Prior knowledge:
The protein is mainly α and 125 residues long. It has one domain. It has helices at 13-92, 95-106. 0% of the residues are buried.
Amino acid sequence: MAKSSNVSRINEAYIEQHDAYIRRQKQRKKRLFRRLALFGLVVMITIVCVTTYHIKQRVKYNELQAEYTEKSDQLASLEKEEKKLTQEIKLLNDEEYLLQIAKTNYFFTEEGEIVFKLPEEESSY
């Protein structure tokens, strides 16, 4: 059973104003809490999005870095091959080199020459 209070409430304007002030303060606190919660939620979502974006960019950067390294190695080997082929072109423009290749590979001879094909020497262990 509830106790009944022997004290009655005074209905004066000051008491009503004070009660209204207390209600307004509670409503302000409630709104402030809601705004702070919303702001916190927005900040958390922003942090998650930025972090996700940053991680994706790092992964993409690492992939591109690996691809760059691979392409650089490929470029170096192609440049080396180009130098080799350029040197071979210079040699093929030389008539003496062409005659030497013709003699060794195709047994080309000039008049009066005799070509002897010797077997390649193997080591005698």
